[in-house]
Amino acid sequence: MERYHPPSSRSINAESFESEILALYAQPASRIGHECERGGWKKEARAWYQRALALDPDLPHVRQALAGLDRE
Q1: In a domain, 66, yes or no
Q2: Inside any domain, residue 13
Q3: How far is it, in rounded angstroms, from Cα 53 to Cα 39?
Q4: Three-state DSSP class for 57?
């Protein structure tokens, strides 16, 4: 993750392909969060989901996963 240098979500043109680039940068963090959740590591899952949202705040599936952790 340290090698990633994504643009800020505020600096991109959201009407262009740049929003897709942010989603691609956030995908690994989202997937790691999902695997942590499946393994029962909710604290770690929350941290990874939050990383994904920090990269791309417009990911509804990550917001839903995070909300699911908050309900449990």
Answers
A1: yes
A2: no
A3: 21
A4: coil
Residues 12-50 pLDDT 10s:
666 766 777 888 889 999 999 999 999 999 999 999 999
Tokens of 33: 């969060």
- Tell me which residue has tokens 């600096």: 11
**Does 63 have pLDDT greater than 90?**
yes
Asked whether residue 12 is domain-assigned, the answer is: no
Query: Which two tokens mark 11?
Result: 């600096």
65 within domain boundaries: yes
Q: What's the structural domain count of the chain?
A: 1
Per-residue CA distances from 17 to 2, 23, 29 (Å): 23, 10, 20
Q: Which domain does 53 fall in, by range?
A: 23-71
